[in-house]
Design a protein that fits this description.
By secondary structure, the protein is α/β, with parallel strands linked by helices. It has one domain: 3-Layer(aba) Sandwich (Rossmann fold), CATH 3.40.50. Helix content is about 25%, strand content about 30%. It has four helices and nine strands. The chain has a six-stranded mixed sheet with strand order 4-3-2-5-6-7, sandwiched between helices. The protein has a three-stranded antiparallel sheet with strand order 1-9-8. Strand 2, helix 2 and strand 3 (about 70-80) form a beta-alpha-beta unit. Helix 1 packs across helix 2 (about 55-65). The longest helix is centred in the N-terminal third of the chain and has 18 residues, at about 20-40. The mean pLDDT is about 95. Inosinic acid binds near residues 108 and 140.
Amino acid sequence: MSSSAAAVSEFSNPNLEPLFSSEQIQARVSEMGAEIARDYAGQRPLLVGVLKGAYIFLSDLVRATDLRLGVEFMAISSYGAAMRSSGEVRIVKDLDVPVDGRDILIVEDIVDTGLTLSFLIGSLHQRGARTVRLAALLDKFERREREVRIDYCGFQIPDAFVVGYGLDFDERYRNLPYIAVIKDPSLKD
Ligand code: IMP
């Protein structure tokens, strides 16, 4: 394959300030998986990944969790800013299986205001899940509007927009192997 464009590295883009390295993430995810395996010993939890942001975290977390478990996905879309403050979110892709009587572990990339998660946790309880817990890689606690209990938390982070390891900025940067803060969100290239 030939290209006349100069090679530009996406992974070392100067608009990115590294926050957690790939090694730091792997070490923390391994600890979380071990803790989950201990807590759910003898149970068969259903892990529910929230698309799209959680897909890389979920794929590493399940490989660190030595348990008999199931994996499902949901996709949630928030309404516009005005609706968002009311906590209204919409299920864009629903589960393919019933959850009544199941032990559910929601796997989310980041908890920000908490609106998405408080809706999702409520919805799974309403459908008759036996237990609903939450594993979130990142906790942007300063921005919380709804109280959400994070049972397994990777890292607490300051109020900044982060990307990488599944998290995007306008669908970009999900493929970064590490997590970074966007220095200037107005820069598109
Ligand atoms: P919440 O409902 O405000 O807690 O929003 C959670 C969702 O917002 C996450 O699942 C992400 O999709 C998105 N989000 C919040 N903060 C960030 C960020 O810093 N980077 C990328 N996505 C974010």
